[in-house]
Write a structure and sequence with these properties.
Largest sheet: 2 strands, antiparallel
Radius of gyration: 11 Å
Number of strands: 4
Number of helices: 0
Strand content: 25-35%
Structural class: mainly beta
Oligomer: single chain
Low-confidence stretches: none
């Protein structure tokens, strides 16, 4: 598994309804082919 931390000014398409994950985090979906600035990869 790769974890990437990024920032963007765009709102995710599901910003009102994030998908809960088993690890307690929430998944947000962004449109395909948008540019993001990668801050850190773990």
């Amino acid at each position: 598994m790769n974890v990437v931390f990024f920032q963007t000014r765009l709102k995710p398409v599901n910003h009102d309804h994030p998908i809960p994950q088993s690890n307690g985090l929430r998944e947000y979906k962004f449109p395909k082919d948008i540019e993001v600035e990668i801050l850190e990869a773990a």
